[in-house]
Amino acid sequence: MNDDVRKYIYGAITVFLVGVMSWISIIYVSACGVTLTCQRGAPRVDRTPIPTLIPATLPASDVSWDAEVSEPAPLTNSDTCRVPAVNFIGAWAASQTPKSTEADPFYFVDEDGKNCEATFPDVQALLNQPNLRGADSLACTSCHSGDLTVAPAQLDLSAFAGIMTGSRREGNKPKGADILGDGEWKASLLYDFLTNARADVPGHEQALSASFMISVGRSFAGPLPTPTP
Questions:
Q1: What are the extents of the domains in the chain?
Q2: CB half-sphere exposure, 104, CA atoms < 13 A
Q3: pLDDT tens across 138-175, in order?
């Protein structure tokens, strides 16, 4: 092989290698820039899009139950009582005497047969609650407020004193008509207006259902206290 042929072969190889290196350099620079620490070609690591997510360290909750029990215990506070709202208000109304105060406890038996107690603030919270009569119904105290100039039937349901004073207090009379039935709940005005729908009375178009259940009060061990005469 003469020197000219050898030069052509070596020249072609050199041009090929220079071309390959130039091509690789162009691709590298366009991807990584002028740096020797580029890791664009490293295998991708899948990570959560939430950078603050950390592995859980607490043990998983035990949701098992005794094999002899047909179903798990309900996820409720065992000290809370379940009772129809109308019966709950009735238990409070029947307990009231002229000597009663809003701090005095009253007692009832709930749907599960538990002996329970509550106080007037529990009743007041119910009267302050919207949707008691159904979807989009106003709270009782939205209309029956302490302002007797606008309260229907001059009845204030927003405070213990207002309820005990009664309704129809024209001229801000100190005492109006008894709405609690003097201990006879189902004969009372309050029971009548809660449980009967009255299309002609604003806010009373729907009745408080006898099956409307609430969780309220506290259960206790032992018999119900005997009412004081």
A1: 1-36, 81-219
A2: 17
A3: 999 999 999 988 999 999 999 999 999 999 987 767 88
Residue 90 contacts residue 191 (beta carbons within 8 Å)? yes
Tokens of 77: 């506070």
Q: Report CA-CA distances (Å) from 92 to 1, 133, 147, 170.
A: 119, 19, 24, 26
Give the number of other Cβ atoms within 10 Å of residue 194's Cβ: 19
Cα–Cα–Cα angle for 125, 94, 162, nearest 5°? 50
Confidence band of 115 (pLDDT split at 50, 70, 90)? very high
Distance, in Å, from the CA atom of 36 to the CA atom of 43, rounded to the nearest integer, reads 17
From 120, 129, 110, select the one nearest 89 (Cα to Cα).
120
